[in-house]
């Protein structure tokens, strides 16, 4: 058996591997949280846009705005 190069005997190689694995694990956790926050935030933006379009449709249906203004505002809301 070679002393100093195993994983269970307290060698520096074991500590190095453990440190790298720990960095990769925490990096994946942080990346997952960032992805989740961006994904949930993106959905909220789309719902807010949908609410604005619904309100615009209601205002047009009630006659508060004319067809030209409706078309301009709808184009502004749907353009990226």
Q: Count the helices. How many?
A: 2
Largest sheet: none
Q: Compute the CA-based radius of gyration.
A: 28 Å
Tally the beta strands.
Answer: 0
Are there runs of 5+ residues with pLDDT below 50, and where?
none
Taken in chain order, the helices and strands follow as HH
Binned, the helix content reads over 70%
Percent strand equals: under 5%
> Which structural class matches the secondary elements?
mainly alpha
Shape category: rod-shaped
Average predicted local confidence, pLDDT: 82
What separation lies between the terminal Cα atoms? 65 Å
Model description:
The protein has helices at about 10-60, 65-80. The model has no long low-confidence stretch (mean pLDDT about 80). The protein has a domain at about 25-80. It is about 80% helix and about 0% strand. The N and C termini lie far apart (about 65 Å). Helix 1 (about 10-60) packs antiparallel against helix 2. By secondary structure, the chain is mostly helical.
Task: Indicate the topology.
Elements lengths: L11 H51 L4 H12 L2
Features:
80 residues; mainly alpha; 2 helices; 79% helix
């Amino acid at each position: 058996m070679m002393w100093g190069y195993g994983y269970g005997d307290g060698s520096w190689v074991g500590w190095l591997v453990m440190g790298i694995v720990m960095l990769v694990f925490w990096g994946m956790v942080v990346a997952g949280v960032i992805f989740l926050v961006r994904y949930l935030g993106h959905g909220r933006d789309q719902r807010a846009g949908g609410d604005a379009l619904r309100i615009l449709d209601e205002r047009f249906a009630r006659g508060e705005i004319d067809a030209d203004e409706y078309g301009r505002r709808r184009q502004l809301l749907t353009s990226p």
